[in-house]
Amino acid sequence: MTTTTTPAAIPASRSRYGSMQHDRVWALRWSYFFLILFVIFFLTPPIYMLITSLKTSNEISSLTNPWWVFNPTLENYIELTTSPQFQTFFINSAMVSVFVVTTTMLIAVPAAFALSRMKFLGSATLATGVFLTYLIPETLLFIPLFKMMAVFNELTGIQLINKWWVNLILYPTLTVPFCTWIMIGYFASIPKELDEAAIIDGATWMQTLTRIFIPVALPGLIAATIFAFTVSWAQFLYPLAFTTSTDQLVLPVGIITTLIKGDIFNWGQIMTGALLGALPPLVIYAFLMDYYIAGLTAGATKG
Amino acid sequence: MADVAARSDALSSEQRRAPSRLRAFLHRKSTIAFLMTLPLIVLIAVLVIYPAFYALHLATLNKRMTQFVGVKNFTFLFTRETFWMVVQQSCIFALTAVFFKAVIGFIVAHLVHNVPNDKQRKWRGMLLIPWVIPPAMSTLAWLWLFDPSHSAFNWLLAHIGIDPVPWIGNANWARFSVILVNVWIGSPFFMIMYLAALKSVPDQLYEAAKIDGATWWQTMRYVTLPMMRNIIAITALFSTIVTFANFDIVRVLTRGDPLDKTHVFATWAFRVGIEGGDIPLGAAVSLFMVPILTVAAIFILRDINRRGNEA
Amino acid sequence: MADVSIRKVVKKYDEVLAVRGIDLDIKDHEFVVLVGPSGCGKTTTLRMIAGLEDITDGEILIGPDVVNDVPPKDRDIAMVFQNYALYPHMTVHENMSFGLRLKKFPKAEINARVDEAARILDISELLDRKPKQLSGGQRQRVAMGRAIVRNPKVFLFDEPLSNLDAKLRVQMRIEIKKVHQKVRTTTVYVTHDQVEAMTLADRVVVMSNGIIEQVGTPSELYHNPRTRFVAGFIGSPAMNFVPCRLEANGQSLALRLNNDIVLPVPPARAQRYLPHANNGKLELGIRPEHLTEAKTQPEAGVAPLEARLDVTEPMGMETFVYFDLAGAPACGRVSPNAGARDGAKLPMAVDLNNMHLIDSATGRVL
């Protein structure tokens, strides 16, 4: 530490024990200590899900140490994965998610391109409007939508309620606004001269989009796709409200409504089901974590 | 260029006829742009904006939806004690949960930021998991953790001599549990946002502060927090809206019980409207979210515009 | 190859007039440089030729055709951007061939053209690389290659060298000139750097504030500027301007700079300036190379001047001296062993044979 200080500007600092390097090491140790505490907090539920899923019903009801598996078994997994009902849930969820992701990107990408690049009357208002609709919660819309579906059924005879494909119509309202917003951000970061070079090279707007923007903004596309998939997979309210027959349910709703039969809770199976239900997003997260996070942060930071 | 075969790339003037009016119209930038945004506009108009207004209309009908009853549904709600409980619970849950999510997110973000860069990824990865798991699924896990007969937490508490806690059975504990699960699921989001914001503060500012002799708290107050102000505001507002309108957690954990003491707007609207078969009343309940959401949206918009101007 | 004509072109953005009515005729094979300070309208003009901006009023012709409503891809032009604008996800070869691929040219011809252009620009080994693996100069050459491959009627350059460091800039200037010698396509080149303009152009167009100040060869602009703006813009270090009055003594004229300094006007100029003898708002324009150290022998038209130097800049080959001349800051150029030192007095000479007289009110060079 220097012994002379310029007057007035710097408040007198008391001398510290040890060097700065020493302080940094201790700061790091404390950081790790607290980080471990938080990790325990955040990871306890999923780990507990795993532990429970490996237990037999007997072991669970015998009230032994809940945090340890004495007789691990895979019977829960086998039962569920071979159960046609569970398989139906899984397939319904998968189909819905894949369709919704595709529809979402087909709507969001051209819209984002038009809104960010092709300045036309009202494009700025529309872009903000898109963002705002994301703020209108599903919990406000599900009741009128329910009625609308019933009315639609009366008018056209096409049944929408209690059919799994109703989700194909509803989910995009949750995914499209945000995905459009994400893509607008990514497209906006592409230098404008690239468009102009493409125009001079003779590209039409569609060609510019497909041959230049989409390849260059690929990370954004992946992030948006992951976001759309995750939201679709985890959806609970809409399918709960709109589908009731067992064979029309998607996974989250299926697990909760069918595995909790009356008063008998088969927790081993429930936890297994929950874990399996959480698996696809977790797998994607594990392999594509950076894109996942990019999708998350894209909206807010570019907002 | 003499070496390469010459070829006329562009149309000569005789060949370039004026394109037909329709073709020209279709190729105009504004037409193409409009067509590209059309699906988006249709989707939002039909499935978001229209239902929102339709809800207003529905709320003015009687239970069988055969006659117009004006504001009777709303006034009816005002007389019900449950309604006021729902209002109170929704607001308290939202504000408390957002507050704790922000604080925890802030602290954890700093902790991760302190770790050397190459190790951060690992920690970040683990800490974000609550956000990745579908909320309905993870709430199930909490439900199991809180189970009256088998609670793993109570098992641990028993070992240190504390009586079992009625996590879901007792009204106040149930409220606590709902907030806890909410905070568990939502903190990682705040952490990730704040971490990104922390990283965007230039190192030189911290160095300048150090040279100027700032203490840890002063640095926080005069350098870190001001630079993060925008992210803090936007994330908090976003989260308030999402938390306020949350359905999954309460539905799975308590279904609103005990005695409706954990109901929020979303779950109560579901109970009344779908399970109770009274669609107009359900619509009326969910409409009460609108004023609060609008206020939050206005703040968000203002913030975005201000940030846009600052940038 | 074609000529380009710009007739009374105006460009208006909302309420702002970026280009206020310019006329210019560019001949086939010519290398024309539009130069001027930021905001003078040169880039806007270039972009109107390219078709990237609409033309508010007036006409632009490429060859015999009016191209006002013709989209860029049908104008048969190619452009080199300031930031290169290379497609980051494509290789050099794909970047250069993109336009041709869009037009569905046969593969053999595409490859032939790309190879030829790569040969001219000496980038043949880089064809399989991506832009991020290239240096600034290499990227610039790829951008030029993309333009050459199209075999257009006109090349348009938008400040292509601004992003390069000084040394690279000099090198690339020479490259561009060599390419033009080989390929001979009509070229319109925009820059704010008058050195680039002077070294590259067949003709230079000086613009300011949306109008053309003067068009001419580099030599014409240097020696015979027609406005104060052009006189001060071209040449580095810039021309010196000193307010003065013309005094007439019978047939001879003199320039009075202040109470102490009076300079005789060379007889050859007297005729031209006589009508302005009573004008009080005049400026003397004199380039630094004409403010030298005192001559050993008296010369016609050269007047002595005593200067107290403020700052000197020894450049090795010459020394620039900065001093006050009748209240105006002046720059002179003396030989390195003239004894110039900061703060010292130096006898100097003004070569009035190369003087310019400017009417301050109109900005015209008389």
Can you summarize this structure?
The complex is a heterotrimer of chains A (303), B (311) and C (366). Chain A is mainly α.
How would you characterize this protein structure?
The complex is a heterotrimer of chains A (303), B (311) and C (366). Chain A folds into 2 domains: 34 residues; 228 residues, MetI-like (MetI-like fold, Orthogonal Bundle), CATH 1.10.3720.10. In chain A, helix 5 packs across helix 8. Chain A is mainly α and 303 residues long. In chain A, strand 1 and strand 2 form a beta hairpin. Chain B contains 15 helices and no strands. The N terminus of chain B is likely disordered. Chain C is α+β, with helices and mostly antiparallel strands and 366 residues long. In chain C, 25% of the residues lie in helices and 35% in strands. In chain C, strands 6-7-8-3-9-10 form a 6-stranded mixed sheet, sandwiched between helices. In chain C, strands 13-12-11-14-20-21 form a 6-stranded antiparallel sheet. Chains in contact: A-B, A-C, B-C. The interface between B and C is medium-sized, with 11 and 17 residues.
Strand and helix layout:
The complex is a heterotrimer of chains A (303), B (311) and C (366).
Chain A: H1 20-53, H2 57-61, H3 75-82, H4 84-117, H5 123-133, H6 138-156, H7 166-170, H8 172-188, H9 192-201, H10 205-216, H11 218-234, H12 237-242, H13 251-258, E1 260-261, E2 264-265, H14 267-287, H15 289-302
Antiparallel strand pairs in A: 1-2
Helix pairs in contact in A: 1-14, 3-14, 4-5, 4-8, 4-11, 4-13, 5-8, 8-11, 8-15, 11-14, 11-15, 13-14, 14-15
Chain B: H1 21-27, H2 29-58, H3 72-79, H4 81-114, H5 117-127, H6 129-132, H7 135-145, H8 152-159, H9 171-200, H10 203-211, H11 216-244, H12 248-253, H13 265-275, H14 279-287, H15 289-310
Chain C: E1 4-13, E2 16-26, E3 31-35, H1 42-50, E4 57-62, E5 65-66, E6 77-80, H2 92-102, H3 107-121, H4 136-149, E7 154-158, H5 166-183, E8 186-191, H6 194-200, E9 203-208, E10 211-216, H7 218-223, H8 228-233, E11 240-249, E12 252-256, E13 262-264, H9 267-273, E14 282-286, E15 291-293, E16 302-314, E17 319-325, E18 328-334, E19 345-351, E20 356-359, E21 364-365
